[in-house]
Amino acid sequence: MIAPITGKLRKRFWLDLTCALGLGTGAGYAFWYGVHLKSVQKQEEYYLKLERLKRQSGEV
User: Where in the cell (predicted)?
Assistant: First the structure.
């Protein structure tokens, strides 16, 4: 007769949970600093350019 394996599911759960949180946090930081902040910077530069053009055309 084969003895039941006890405690394996619990150990695997904590490993899976720890890996999921770690990888999720890493992916979140990678997205935030790799994609999001660059797109926000491009957007800010565009609106700054529009503001400069608006001021320049208003002075003429």
Answer: Mitochondrion inner membrane
Going by the DSSP 8-state scheme, the letter that residue 42 receives in this structure is: H
Q: How confident is the model at residue 2 (pLDDT cuts 50, 70, 90)?
A: confident
Q: Provide the whole-model pTM.
A: 0.64
- Quote the CA–CA distance of 4 and 59 in Å, as a whole number: 84
Q: In percent, how much of the chain has pLDDT > 90?
A: 70
End-to-end CA distance of the chain: 94
Q: Which of the 8 DSSP states describes residue 6?
A: -
How far apart CA 54 and CA 47 sit, in angstroms, is: 10
Q: String of b and e for 42-60 (b: at least 16 CB within 10 Å)?
A: eeeeeeeeeeeeeeeeeee
